[in-house]
Design brief:
- The protein is an alpha+beta fold and about 140 residues long.
- The chain has one domain (about 10-130).
- Helices cover about 35% and strands about 10% of the residues.
- It is built from 7 helices and 4 strands, in the order αααββββαααα.
- The longest helix has 11 residues, at about 120-130.
Length: about 140
């Protein structure tokens, strides 16, 4: 398994209503990070502060860089994303990815071929990589 290359696939996929935040997180944002809290409406996150509609992309996902792939002319440039609220992001973001199968489903670029053939070992590796972000998974299947 590779380290995260900041491809943004998870942020793009879940940044449009696929995430939630605990009431404690929302309360903390309201007290300490009002610029985040303004994107919360009725307990839902990443809502447009004016229209109150669900945003289609996380408002805190930013393009860090674009690099042209030099091996082939036909491939689009690799885009590297960053999170402008990384240290105060919701737990849903901090804990992702939790399971190998969700990484496969989401097209996560951390997955390597060997991870697909030995998902149990890949889950152990994932838990180690993510140990500073979330509790380790108890289910390694």
């Amino acid at each position: 398994m590779q380290n995260c290359n900041q491809c943004g696939k998870c942020c793009i996929k879940y940044g449009n209503g696929g995430l939630s935040a605990a009431p404690e997180e929302i309360d903390w944002w309201q007290n300490h990070r009002p610029e985040i809290a303004k994107y919360v409406n009725k307990g839902k996150i990443w809502m447009d502060p004016i229209s109150e509609e669900q945003l289609t992309v996380c408002p805190f996902l930013t393009v860090e860089s674009q690099q042209k792939n030099m091996t082939t002319v036909t491939e689009p440039p690799k885009i590297k994303y960053s999170c402008s609220i990384y240290y105060d992001r919701p737990d849903d973001c901090k804990y992702y990815p939790v399971k190998i199968d969700e990484m496969i489903r989401d097209g996560c670029e951390m997955i390597e071929v060997r991870d697909l053939t030995d998902t149990r070992s890949a889950q152990v590796t994932l838990d180690r990589i993510m140990s500073d972000s979330r509790p380790a998974s108890n289910d390694t299947t």
